[in-house]
Each structure stands twice: as C-alpha cells, then as structure tokens.
C-alpha cells in the first residue's frame, strides 16, 4: 500500500471524528485550543489504536467483528445525537458535546473509530506497515479534529441556539451513514 493510499485512508477515517469535532466546536465558547486538543487527542488516539487492534486480531475474528460493529456505532451516535436534539428542543443545555468528560469523549471516540478496526483487519492481509498506517491515521485525525473544533465554533457563533440541534442531527447522520455503508445500502 502506497503512502498516498495510506494518507487517503487516514483522511477518510478521520471524517466522522471531524464531524463530531464540528459539533464540539459549536458548543465551545472560549476554550477552543483546550477543546481542540482534547478532541484531537481522544479521536486521534482511538483512530490510531483501532487499526492496530484490528491488525492484531487479523482474520481470526473478522467475521465476529464485522457482524455488529456498525450497529454499535449507530446506536451510540443515535442516542447521543437524540439527546442533543431533545435538549435543544426543550431549551436545555446539553452536556454531551460541551462538558467533554472522559466518559463522553471515550464513547464518541469509540463510536467514530469502529470502522478503523475493520480497516486494520484488512491491513493484516495487505503489505502495509501497520506502524506507519496507524500513526498516520492518528496524526491526520488529530489535525482534522483540532481544526474541526475551530470551524465548529465559528458555525456555532453564526447558528446560535440552533447549533446543538444541528450537532445532534450530524451525529445521527454519521451513525446512519456507518450503518447503511456496512449493510451495503450506500
């Protein structure tokens, strides 16, 4: 696998985490750098670790992982997105993308990096340097998410109170996209 292919794979894998980072940014008021670093680190570490885990699991467990990974991602993102939409409609402030607790960030990072696990399994069958691939995925995801928080904050300033509602829609759409891709519909 060429460096360009690894880069493009890393960029594609980073897009779900980037979209969630936009949602985080929409809720960020003053702590852009702190929240950008936090999003970048969580998503970057998980996106980089999952291909490594998938590579280590290899073919032996592929059938078990691929059967349910998309459902886990869909359910987690739909619940979090639904909660954000509900609280936006009720006029309550959601803590999902504004508190950025370890629990919330870990759930979001797992949900957006499950597809990287499957990619890691495929790396086991290709002539891929897993260290180069995993580190490239982690670095590109970190950069994308850091930038995503900044872009999201600008969008949040423009959208005002609609930002949380839009953030919830984005999370549900990401979960739906993951599910439909794995079901072969997209």
TrEMBL record:
Molecular function via GO: manganese ion transmembrane transporter activity
Matching Pfam families: Mntp (PF02659)
Membrane topology, from the record: Multi-pass membrane protein
Keywords, ordered alphabetically: Cell membrane, Ion transport, Manganese, Membrane, Transmembrane, Transmembrane helix, Transport
Membrane spanning stretches: 39-59, 71-89, 101-123, 130-151, 163-180
Localisation per UniProt entry: Cell membrane
Principal place of residence: membrane
Any one GO CC term of the record: plasma membrane
Similarity-based family: Belongs to the MntP (TC 9.B.29) family.
Record function comment: Probably functions as a manganese efflux pump.
Name this polypeptide is given: Putative manganese efflux pump MntP
Source lineage: Bacteria, Bacillati, Bacillota, Clostridia, Eubacteriales
């Amino acid at each position: 696998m060429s460096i360009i292919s690894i880069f493009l794979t890393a960029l594609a894998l980073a897009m779900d985490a980037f979209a969630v980072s936009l949602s985080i940014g929409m809720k960020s008021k003053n702590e852009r750098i702190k929240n950008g670093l936090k999003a970048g680190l969580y998503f970057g570490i998980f996106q980089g670790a999952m291909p490594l885990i998938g590579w280590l699991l290899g073919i032996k467990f592929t059938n078990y992982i691929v059967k349910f990974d998309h459902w886990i991602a869909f359910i987690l993102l739909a619940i979090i997105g639904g909660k954000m939409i509900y609280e936006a409609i009720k006029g309550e402030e959601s803590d999902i993308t504004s508190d950025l607790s370890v629990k919330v960030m870990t759930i979001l990072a797992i949900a957006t990096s499950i597809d990287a696990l499957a990619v890691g399994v495929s790396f086991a069958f290709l002539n891929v340097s897993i260290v180069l691939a995993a580190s490239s995925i982690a670095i590109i995801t970190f950069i994308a998410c850091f930038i995503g928080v900044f872009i999201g904050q600008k969008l949040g300033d423009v959208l005002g109170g609609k930002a949380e509602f839009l953030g919830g829609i984005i999370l549900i759409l990401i979960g739906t996209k993951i599910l439909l891709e794995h079901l072969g519909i997209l």
